[in-house]
Amino acid sequence: MGGSSAAQTAEGFSLEVSLGPLRLSSPLIGASGCVAFGEEYRRLYENSRQAMEGSSIAQLGAIVTKAVSLKPRGGNPPPRVAETPAGLLNSIGLQNPGLDHFLAELAPRLSQLGTKVIVNLVGDTAQEFAELASILSQKTDFPAFELDLSCPNVEEGGRSFAMSLPSLREVISRVRQVTDRFLIAKLAPNVCDIGEFAQAAVEAGADALTVANTWIGMVVDVERRTSRIGRTTGGVSGPAIRPLTMALVHRVRQAVRVPILASGGAVRTQDVLEYLIVGASAVQIGTGLWIDPMCPLKINRGLREYLARHRMSLGELIGSFQAEVSRGG
Amino acid sequence: MQYGFFQVLRQVELAPEHFVIWGRLTPPPHQPILPGSFLHLKVDPPGDYRMLWRPYSFLDYQPDTHQAAIYYRVVGEGTGQLCQRREGELLPAIYPLGTPFTHEGVSRAIMVAGGVGVAPLLMLYDRMRHSSPQLRVEFLFGARSGRDLVPGLLEEFGVVARMASEDGTLGHRGYITDLLPEVLEQGEWQMVYACGPNPMLSALADLLPEGLPCQVSLELPMACAIGVCNGCNLPLRSDGGRYPRRLCVEGPVMDLREVDFAALV
Fold first, then answer.
1. In the annotation, is A151 catalytic?
2. Chain A, chain B: beta-carbon pairs less than 8 Å apart
3. Domain boundaries, chain B
4. What is the distance between the alpha carbons of residues A139 and A144, in angstroms, rounded to a whole number?
5. A91 to chain B: closest CA residue
6. Is residue A158 less than 8 Å (CB to CB) from chain B?
7. Does the N terminus or the C terminus of chain A have fewer Cβ atoms within 10 A?
8. Distance between B37 CA and the closest CA of chain A, angstroms
9. Does domain B2-97 match CATH 3.40.50.150?
10. Nearest neighbour of B221 by CB, restricted to A36, A82, A295
11. B122 Cβ contact list (under 8 Å, min separation 6)
12. pLDDT in tens, chain B (265 residues)
């Protein structure tokens, strides 16, 4: 049955949420690197309605594309992934076909995807970020860009933009000068006080923040006494990092007022509720799709049930965290 | 590919640690299940949302009943979970995945299997036997120990194999590839099919004469299995370090000579 419109809910509880110019039918967003350019999940969900009624890419309010760089990137040598307790260590290396291919082949198809699209940008220099944003603003009408400032895999003078306040400011302000699109800065979790980085990002012109990227991690193969992945260290994602990232979202919520896209280990309704309560306006689903590909559908159902049970709107839920716990007695 | 369920019908313990799990694919697959293709399976109990899924090659598939078989050896956490799944349980799955073996026009083939890598080759043998009455296959099966050369499995498929074990407990003592030169001399072979550990496949690449094509089914750690994560991209000789080919989509069956085994570790 076609009509998978997220607005038609059993209880009439809407999951609509606005992120700047983006009006999302659900606060769930496919995380960058975990949904490629949307095509595979669109197809999988379309083919799976017999097993799971309502299965559709539209269960995700939006997707964030795989990072797009000026030139194609081949990525890192294998092995690129290793499972960790309740998580995944990866070192893909921002492999992507580059801007020209994106513009010629992928962008036209993305407009037919069936959900909103946020383009993730990555560069080696602030200049590259600005160039990308400028070209994409001229040649496409994607309403929002996410700046991948925090990916720990690509070495740039030893650390990522998101780990140094000056370079974070520089990239965001350079991009801000060349585009009026909704700018989301994706922050790194591995910093002393993410609140400072959040403030710096907003001051430099970010309209929203993704909190956060994967956590730097490592797994050793003790028989061979090597790393389990090709690039020694990588990024850890999945349920293992969820409480860690939850605390970051909480911190960032206190530091700035712009919308937060939480990203870290959400798989179940409970996880998304936690992020929303703490103050995220949207929650990215990444590794969760590989633990339960149908989790967006199940979470949306669960969110509606929760809202119905508590007789509240999604807007009322977001940021409803009570800092003081009343313990009675 | 589609999302559905592998409804467990039975677990057959062939030998200690060696199992075949049978299940019904529900709903039935929209696409044919072919040798070399695989399914991605949730192996931990329902309600647990911590583990990644696991890719398994098909050992067998009955199109009339939609029953599928997976052969596995309990080696780690995933297979440790899988062997605990019981009749009636519905394991979420995505199927079928990957690019299968091709065998059109092939009637004289060598199959080289290492350990649990025997599974897709047994299915391939079975399909080829039905499509090509003149079929001649020389089947080579090696493992670390004779315990891993589970005989009941081959009998089920009517396969008589030359065997080798590294510890000498069954068949030739040594590597299965040791037996290859003799077999190569015994016929006009059209194709070699292989599946097993990378060192075995790498040795095979050194042994095969130039004109003889070889399709291998490979394994790498996988996360999504549907082509989005780029976690299983393969080092191929022709790709100049750019890794465009994903094992889960363009593989797991590849041209042996394309694979850069030195980079595969």
1. yes
2. 128
3. 2-97, 108-217, 219-260
4. 14
5. B231
6. no
7. C
8. 16
9. no
10. A82
11. B59, B60, B71, B113, B153, B154, B157, B159
12. 999 999 999 999 999 999 999 999 999 999 999 999 999 999 999 999 999 999 999 999 999 999 999 999 999 999 999 999 999 999 999 999 999 999 999 999 999 999 999 999 999 999 999 988 899 999 999 999 999 999 789 999 999 999 999 999 999 999 999 999 999 999 899 999 999 999 999 999 999 999 999 999 999 999 999 999 999 999 888 887 788 899 999 999 999 999 999 888 6
